[in-house]
Structures are given as C-alpha cells and as structure tokens.
C-alpha cells in the first residue's frame, strides 16, 4: 500500500494541475446533468455530490489510471423517468444504492469481462463521436446561446430542435460578450499548446485552462465596469447553489427513503441503472485506456466494484448515479494526468471549492469553459484519426464511421449497439472467408482438391465449408485436412461426415480425411 501511495504522490506535480482542469470541466457538467436529470433547481447539488464521490470514492477504489467518474449525461432520461415513476427523489436514492450493490456483485462475479469484447473500431468511433458532439454542443455555449444544459450529448433538443438546428439558433441569438471571451480563451489555450510554452517553468505547473478561466472572469468583470452591454450574467455563467450557513449547506444532502424497500418499481429502476451505468463505465474504460499514453489496462471487474461503491455512497448522501465518463477522462489525459491521483484531486478540489468559494465559481463564464471543451473535442476527433482508420481498410473504417454517425444521431449506447452489429458482421464475414485454405491440383485421374482447415473451426464456418463442399466438381478427389486444427465444432464435423457418407458417393467424389473425428465419436478434437 505504501509503495502505491508513494507512486501516486510522486506524480502529483502532473496530477494536481490535471485535477484542477478536470474540476473546472466537471463543475458545469455536474450542474447541467443534475438540472436535466431532476428538473429541479433545488437538486442541483445532487450532481456535485456525484462528481465529488466519483472523484474521491471511485478514484481511491478504482485501478483506472486516468478514468474520471461522475454524473453522466447518458443517464439523464433514465433518472428523470425513474424519479417520476417512484414519486420522490428520496425513493430514487434508494434505487441508486441498490444499483451500486448490484454492480459490486457483478464485479465479484467477474462480469467485467464484457468490457474486453468491444472491437477497437467501435471504441475509436465512440471517441471520435464524443469529440464531434463536444464541438457541436459547445459551439452554442461559445456563442453565448445557453438554452441547453452544459454537457448534453443527446441529438434531440427541447421544442423539436436537434444538435444541428441548435447551431442556427446559436448564430441567430449569439451574445457578443460571450464570443469575445470564447475567442480569446481559445487563442490562449492554443498558445499554451505550443511546445515553447511548456518550456517555461511556471506553465509546467499552472495549467492553461486555469489561466483561461481566470482570464474569462477578468474580461467579464471588465465588461461590467466599462461596457455593461457586453457583460455576461445569469444563465451565461456557472450557477452553483450558494449556502448562507453551514446548516443550509448540509441541507443540500439528502437521505434515501428506506420505506421504499416495499416498492417493486425501486428494484426495476435499480437493475436498469446498474446495467446502463456498468455498460457506460466499461465503454469509457476501454476508450480511456486507448487514450492513455502509457497504454495501461484497467481491471474491469475491479472497476465495476469501484463504480458500485461510488453509487452506494452517492445514493446514501443524496447524489446522482455515477459512471466513468469519457469527456472528463479525456480532459484528464489532455491535461497531462498520469495516475488516479488526478481523479482524486479533482474530487477534492470540487469539494473544497463548493464549500469555500462558491460565489467566485459563479463568476465563471460558460463560454470560457466551452472553449476548453472545444479543444478537448477537436483532439478526440482529429482528422488524422479518420485518415488512420481509412488506411486500415473497409473492415475497420466502415464500423468506425457507422459508430460515429449512429452516436451523433441517437445516443451513446444506441450508437455503440449499431456499431457493434456492423463490426460483428465484418468479423463473421472474415471468419467465413478464412476458415480453410483451398488448393486444387490436376492429375491424370482427375482433380485433386485439398482443404486445410484453420486452427479454430466453429459453427460460424459451417456455411462456407458446406458451400465449398457442395461446389466441388464431380469425379474428383478431395482431401480434408484437420490435422492443424485445435478444435473443430460438431456442426462442421457433421457436414463433413454427411458429405463423405452420402453426397460424395453420388457424385463419384473420393474423400480422404486427416485428423477429423467421426460424428458419432465427437467429444472435442
């Protein structure tokens, strides 16, 4: 334990600045998701609780080096409907606790193995899609059109609008002050991205995002003093609940309604939350591991347990459900985080900030934070990624593009499901095509055809092998060689046996087999 602790602390000079950046990104996302999930301004703090718990509790118990957890936009509809169904937020908190217990159980039952079965093309498509969504969704905030909550990822928007129509309204109803702040913020961030800036000692420890936030606050205060018509206020700024006393602050925390144990709907909500939150976390784990410069692998079973502990804790003190989320995780990577100490630091900074400086945080313009997220989005969806996937061939590029498009037009889980279907199709097609090698030789007595079966021959190869056998020329000799195969599925053995015993004699085909069991003695090859 001491070795791990020392290792975490040794990277604090990288992790602490990254934690600051992630906390700045997480703050409006937590508030936005809370408002969208509950529809109640008095429950805004529930999003912050989830963000703090996702940083501290999940950060300490997870072994994900760069993953950051918190309230997820992908759960908004589920949470909103669940609260309406259960009749109270306190009953919903009980469902969150039960969902966490189910996740812990799933972790101990090794259900995290599911995370290893998402094709690379789909995961990269998810990353690119999140990047494009960030760009499309943050442009309105950068222009000062803040109708949607910060962090929304859904294609559909209120009043029949969608991601693309929102861009038109953003241009139509833009705010000059916000545009000035976002343009300056973006320019400063790009400057900080230049190699020569990183050679300056001060900026090795002070993140560009922090400078930009302070600059955004300063510019807006200057507007208020010399050009009031440009000053941003209200919905254009972070809107953090401010407690007037310690008693009021602790009043932000809520307890589950334990009497709801007798309500069957609580268990339905708990199961739904556990499944969806676990899938989102496992997807984010895979994606974050691909972004990790050190290419470390996160133990997925341990991650489920950590997420479960996070949800139990969040539910017990009045927070929304937590998942690992790719936006905050990718911001952590881009900010130079090296270990999970960055995640823990972001949670602690959130906690300290909402206690000590909530009024100062409410001075932050959303257009400044939008500039930070625009840069994160661009780095996730760089043109080089699309070019690289295209060079890998259609079997990788098509599932990648389909995943990107499907996520943009629906949501994360539906898009991933559509991408998975396409990726699995290409996997099956490849499996179909490469189940054996075919060699044909001519001799005086007729054609001699050799089929050498591959190392693993499953029922998925049944169609291609059966079709090849049916198309063999009459009056030929065929050698079916399974000596190199580790395992041949029963279905394939049955096709070979039926062909050898029944079809081949009728067409005067002589069949020789090597290393292939008779059907009636199948018990493995």
Layout: helices, strands, pairs:
Elements: H1 2-10, H2 12-38, H3 45-61, E1 68-70, H4 76-86, H5 89-108, H6 120-142, H7 163-172, H8 176-192, H9 195-198, H10 208-226, H11 246-250, H12 264-291, H13 300-317, E2 323-325, H14 326-334, H15 341-356, H16 358-361, H17 366-380, H18 383-391, H19 394-409, H20 412-433, E3 436-443, E4 446-453, E5 456-457, H21 462-470, E6 477-481, E7 487-488, H22 490-506, E8 510-514
Parallel strand pairs: 4-6, 5-7, 6-8
Antiparallel strand pairs: 1-2, 3-4
Helix pairs in contact: 2-3, 2-4, 2-14, 2-15, 3-13, 3-15, 4-12, 5-12, 5-13, 6-7, 6-12, 6-17, 6-19, 6-20, 8-10, 8-17, 10-17, 12-13, 12-14, 14-17, 18-19, 19-20, 21-22
Could you characterize the architecture of this molecule?
- The strands form three sheets. A four-stranded mixed beta sheet has the order 3-4-6-8, covered by helices on one side. A two-stranded antiparallel ribbon has the order 1-2. It has a two-stranded parallel sheet with strand order 5-7.
- The two termini are 47 Å apart.
- It has helices at residues 2-10, 12-38, 45-61, 76-86, 89-108, 120-142, 163-172, 176-192, 195-198, 208-226, 246-250, 264-291, 300-317, 326-334, 341-356, 358-361, 366-380, 383-391, 394-409, 412-433, 462-470, 490-506; strands spanning 68-70, 323-325, 436-443, 446-453, 456-457, 477-481, 487-488, 510-514.
- The protein has 22 helices and eight strands.
- 62% of the residues lie in helices and 7% in strands.
- It folds into two domains: 2-401, no CATH class; 434-521, Transcription Regulator spoIIAA (2-Layer Sandwich), CATH 3.30.750.24.
- With 525 residues, it is an alpha/beta fold.
- α10 (208-226) packs antiparallel against α17.
- Keywords: Membrane, Transmembrane, Transmembrane helix.
- Residues 12-393 form the SLC26A/SulP transporter domain.
């Amino acid at each position: 334990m001491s070795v791990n602790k020392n290792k975490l602390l040794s990277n604090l000079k990288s992790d602490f600045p990254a934690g600051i950046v992630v906390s700045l990104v997480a703050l409006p996302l937590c508030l936005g998701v809370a408002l969208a999930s509950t529809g109640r301004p008095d429950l805004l703090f529930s999003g912050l609780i989830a963000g703090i718990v996702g940083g501290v509790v999940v950060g300490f118990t997870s072994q994900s080096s760069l993953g950051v957890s918190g309230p997820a936009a992908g759960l908004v509809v589920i949470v909103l409907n669940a609260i309406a169904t259960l009749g109270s937020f306190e009953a919903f908190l009980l469902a969150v606790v039960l969902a966490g217990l189910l996740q812990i159980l799933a972790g101990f039952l090794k259900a995290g193995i599911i995370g290893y079965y998402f094709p690379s093309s789909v995961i990269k498509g998810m990353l690119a899609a999140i990047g494009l969504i960030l760009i499309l969704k943050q442009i309105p905030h950068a222009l000062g059109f803040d109708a949607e909550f910060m962090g929304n990822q859904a294609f559909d928007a209120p009043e029949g609008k969608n991601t693309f129509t929102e861009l038109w309204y953003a241009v139509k109803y833009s705010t000059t002050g916000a545009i000035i702040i976002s343009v300056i913020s973006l320019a400063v961030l790009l400057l900080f991205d230049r190699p020569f800036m990183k050679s300056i000692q001060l900026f090795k420890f002070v993140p560009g995002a922090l400078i930009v936030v302070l600059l955004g606050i300063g510019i807006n205060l200057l507007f208020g003093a010399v050009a009031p018509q440009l000053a941003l206020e209200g919905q254009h700024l972070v809107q953090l609940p401010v407690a007037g006393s310690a008693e009021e602050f602790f009043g932000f925390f809520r307890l589950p309604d334990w009497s709801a144990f007798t309500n069957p709907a609580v268990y339905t909500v708990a199961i739904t939350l556990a499944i969806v939150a676990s899938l989102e976390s496992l997807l984010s784990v895979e994606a974050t591991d691909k972004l990790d410069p050190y290419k470390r692998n996160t133990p997925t079973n341990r991650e489920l347990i950590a997420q479960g502990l996070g949800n139990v804790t969040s539910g017990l003190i009045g927070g929304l459900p937590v998942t690992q989320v790719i936006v905050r995780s990718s911001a952590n990577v881009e900010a130079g985080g090296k270990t999970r100490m960055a995640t823990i630091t972001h949670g602690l900074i959130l906690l300290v900030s909402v206690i000590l400086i909530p009024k100062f945080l409410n001075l932050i313009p959303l257009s400044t934070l939008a500039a930070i997220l625009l840069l994160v989005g661009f780095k996730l969806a760089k043109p080089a990624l699309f070019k690289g996937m295209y060079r890998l061939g259609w079997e990788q590029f098509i599932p990648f593009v389909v995943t990107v498009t499907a996520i943009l037009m629906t949501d994360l889980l539906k898009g991933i499901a559509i991408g998975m279907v396409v990726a699995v199709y290409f996997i099956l097609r490849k499996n179909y095509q490469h189940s054996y090698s075919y060699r044909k030789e001519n001799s005086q007595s007729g054609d001699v055809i050799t089929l050498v079966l591959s190392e693993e021959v499953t029922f998925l190869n049944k169609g291609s092998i059966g079709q090849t056998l049916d198309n063999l020329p009459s009056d030929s000799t065929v050698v079916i060689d399974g000596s190199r195969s580790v395992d041949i599925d029963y279905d394939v053995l049955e096709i070979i046996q039926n062909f050898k015993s029944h079809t081949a004699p009728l067409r005067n085909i002589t069949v020789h087999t090597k290393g292939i069991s008779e059907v009636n003695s199948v018990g493995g090859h």
